UniProtKB/TrEMBL annotation:
One Pfam family matching this protein: ExbD
Subcellular locations according to the entry: Cell membrane
GO-annotated cellular components: plasma membrane
Listed PANTHER family: BIOPOLYMER TRANSPORT PROTEIN EXBD2, EXBD MEMBRANE COMPONENT OF PMF-DRIVEN MACROMOLECULE IMPORT SYSTEM
Transmembrane segments: 20-38
Protein's gene: exbD
Protein name: Biopolymer transport protein ExbD/TolR
Taxonomic placement: Bacteria, Pseudomonadati, Pseudomonadota, Gammaproteobacteria, Alteromonadales
Length: 133
């Protein structure tokens, strides 16, 4: 009888780890979902200086224009005729996002205007140009 009583006491002394693992797993999922990832256009751009530059949050669509007038979105070089379709696709994924154009100071204004027009034609009203402070 005494042996049976010791066996029962040993079973009651264990700690159930399942609720703690559930909480840790839920916290991990929460942090993964709420994390914001940095998006890049795919090229390094030498932006012009602007003393009135304002930091822009929630820039979800970044478009880079290199000094050779190459257009980059999501680390892919695209043609100027494909800008509208790419911006429409990215805007459909995140309707609250805005477009930020990172144009090199040696790029031509013609390409900058074409990219801005294509972005507005894609339905994005908030289009900005990146500059150095």
């Amino acid at each position: 009888m005494k042996h049976l009583q010791n066996l029962v006491e040993e079973e009651e002394a264990t700690i159930d780890m399942t609720p703690m693992l559930d909480v840790v797993f839920i916290m991990l999922i929460f942090f993964i979902v709420t994390a914001s990832f940095v998006k890049e256009s795919g090229i390094d751009v030498n932006r012009p200086d602007a003393p009135t530059a304002v930091k822009k949050d929630r820039a979800n669509i970044l478009i880079g224009i290199s000094d050779k007038n190459e257009i980059w979105i999501n680390k892919r070089q695209i043609d100027v005729r494909a800008v509208q379709a790419n911006v429409e696709r990215l805007h459909a994924e995140n309707p609250q996002g805005s477009v930020v154009i990172q144009a090199d100071r040696k790029s031509t204004t013609e390409f900058l205007i074409k990219v801005m027009d294509a972005s507005r034609a894609a339905g994005v009203s908030d289009v900005s140009i990146a500059a150095q402070e």
